[in-house]
Amino acid sequence: MLLSVIIPVYNEEKSLQALLEAVHASPVEKEIIIVNDGSADQTQQILERLRDRFSLHIIHKNRNEGKGAAIRSAIPHIKGEVAIIQDADLELDPQEYSKLLEPFLIYHADVVFGSRFQMAGVRRIFPTGRYLANRFLTIFSNLASGLYLTDMETCYKLFRREVLQSFHLRANRFDIEPELVVQVARLRQIRDLRIFEVPITYNPRSRSQGKKIGFRDGMLAIWAIIRFNFFS
Predict the structure, then answer these.
(1) pTM of the model
(2) What is the pLDDT of residues 173-204, one digit of tens each?
């Protein structure tokens, strides 16, 4: 099973090579589609230097539009049976791709969500405020969409190619996370989607380490849940 790994990047020169080494080392057959979202640092030069080493499919955008717009740019280029979204911040471990693919291989899944809040072995503790914000957004999304998830904002969302390419996505920034959930919920009303969650490990980074999501994005997520569930 070929896995298409979609990686949006913006000003990630510090962690980019380490990320690509980790993704490349994951023991699954994969293609890497990396979208340079108008980076102003050395990201583009690093990608071109590493293109052949990691067999990268690179999309360079002239201006920064956000994670959602970057993902939309990558979707038409997917060749794998399954696609996963991977952030460039090394908070999630590419070594867990194999575990996330199991529901596709064993249970013929259509969609799999990686959950940072399902207990599985050792779990790093992160700040209460961030935890409560994620839990609130997940509960609010569950009530609106009718899907019971434990981690709506997770980066690790996996889709069969035909499922992801059937979505009509419009979100440009981090509001892509609730919009993807809405799209799954709507498609589930039309066909019998097989949806699973898998526990994943999480190693959160701080603002000083380059974390970009903040309070404004939380408010945007609330509006996105309302907008995409009730006004689209």
Answers:
(1) 0.91
(2) 999 999 999 999 999 999 999 999 999 998 87
Return the structure tokens found at 159: 């889709």
3-class secondary structure for 187-225? Answer: HHHHCCCCEEEEECCCCCCCHHHCCCCCHHHHHHHHHHH
* Dihedral angle over CA of 160, 7, 99, 103, nearest 10: -10
Q: Report all structural domains of the chain as residue ranges with CATH numbers, in order of start.
A: 3-230 (3.90.550.10)
| Structure confidence by residue, pLDDT tens digits, 88-139 | 988 999 999 999 999 999 999 999 999 998 866 666 666 778 888 889 999 9
